[in-house]
Design goal:
alpha+beta, globular, about 35% strand, about 190 residues
């Protein structure tokens, strides 16, 4: 897959939103994740498995990222800072190429997915407090829409729907699967 197939379907980074700290009127907290695409023999998406003791999303597969800090001026700042803190990939090795629409989580976050192309010569430096494991999934595997299952769960008395897919022993579901599904659909149908 060519780089342009990925970059042409994204919202331009130049139109990136800026944070308005403590000014949200919907009660959600600002957050951002990096969808790290690593170019190897084919594109791979780098994912993390969170440690089991965390308060939010314990043990789940996720992208590097998290809540906006006061020093973060934009989702890009948050995504790049969190990526460096969680897995050690430095900003200079990441070319941010676009954004996906915000994803609102049932746990109270408004998450902006930032897509970044990562140079493959990075060395991981994992924050073992937050990250139990780092793994990569070939993008062609994720591009197979038949792998995504739409499931239903009752959460706080309401029926909720979520996407889920398996890769090896990893269960990718919820917000992470939804953002992957969105990315894949955009690549396949860039209109």
């Amino acid at each position: 897959m060519k780089r342009e197939q990925i970059t042409d379907c994204l919202e331009p980074v130049s139109e990136r939103p800026r944070w308005c700290h403590n000014q949200r009127d919907d009660g959600l907290r600002n957050a951002a994740v990096l969808i790290p695409l690593v170019e190897r023999e084919q594109w791979h998406v780098l994912l993390t498995k969170r440690t089991d003791h965390l308060n939010n999303h314990a043990g789940q597969v996720s992208f590097p990222g998290g809540r906006a800090d006061a020093e973060d001026h934009s989702p890009l700042d948050t995504a790049l800072r969190e990526t460096e803190e969680e897995v050690g990939i430095q900003r200079g090795l990441i070319e941010t190429v676009g954004l996906l629409e915000a994803h609102k989580t049932v746990t109270g976050f408004n998450v902006i997915p930032v897509v970044g192309l990562v140079k493959p010569e990075f060395t991981l430096a994992i924050d073992s407090f937050e990250v139990a494991e780092v793994f990569e999934v070939p993008l062609p595997v994720l591009m197979d829409i038949s792998r995504y299952q739409r499931n239903e769960i009752e959460y706080q008395g309401e029926k909720r729907y979520y996407w889920e897919l398996m890769y090896k022993e990893f269960r990718i579901w919820g917000a992470t699967a939804a953002m992957l599904y969105n990315l894949v659909n955009r690549i396949q149908d860039p209109k």
